[in-house]
Design goal:
Layout: E1 4-10, E2 13-19, E3 24-29, E4 53-54, H1 59-72, H2 89-99, E5 107-108, H3 109-116, H4 120-128, E6 141-142, H5 155-164, E7 168-170, E8 173-176
Parallel strand pairs: 1-4, 5-6
Antiparallel strand pairs: 1-2, 2-3, 7-8
Helix pairs in contact: 3-4
């Protein structure tokens, strides 16, 4: 499969976005863990010889960039660009649970694991492999007791994203979720 790609600068650094022409397949912060590598993908942040094509007029990537700009400006609380992340059936079930976490809210790995009848470690591993950072908001998944743990883009980015969404933090722990989003 051929992917189209674009790079965009965000307040948290450069992101690489990938599309199959119909949906967003990837959104990675430059240098994050699990950055795509291997056959037909990016190696060390370079798309050279990856089989990927720089997007000229890809509507999916244009919309993803617009939505990221609005999100970081505080004007967007939910993404609507179509998504097609590649992963195992279990990973996709985890990502579907994460996609349901509202702006300004958090959920623990353990709570997601209980819903899926799995282990928090397995949920954490699947969460770390989320190929569409921000669009499937894995930064909203936290450890037990509200502890800020694990984020492929780095814990500082995770804290900044949660703060942007109005979540109150103290060091490495959630103090209060955003009053901007009603609890379900």
């Amino acid at each position: 499969m051929t992917f189209l790609y674009a790079r965009t600068l965000t307040p948290l650094g450069e992101m690489l976005l990938a599309s199959d022409g119909f949906a967003l397949c990837g959104a990675w912060f430059e240098g994050q863990k699990h950055f795509p590598v291997g056959d037909g993908s990016v190696r060390d942040g370079s798309v050279q010889d990856s089989g990927w094509t720089e997007a000229g007029e890809d509507g999916v990537l244009r919309e993803a960039v617009r939505e990221l700009e609005r999100y970081f400006a505080g004007d967007l609380r939910g993404f609507s660009v179509p998504l097609a992340p590649r992963g195992t059936p279990f990973q996709k079930r985890v990502w579907a649970c994460i996609a349901d976490i509202s702006y300004g809210r958090t959920e623990s790995y353990g709570a997601i694991a209980a819903r899926l009848r799995s282990s928090p470690r397995a949920v954490g591993t699947a969460t770390g492999r989320n190929p569409v950072s921000l669009f499937v908001p894995c930064h909203r998944v936290v450890g037990g007791g509200g502890h800020i743990t694990g984020y492929a883009g780095g814990l500082e980015k995770k804290k900044r994203l949660l703060t942007l969404e109005g979540v109150k933090l103290e060091r490495e722990k959630i103090l209060q979720e955003s009053p901007l989003s009603p609890a379900f």
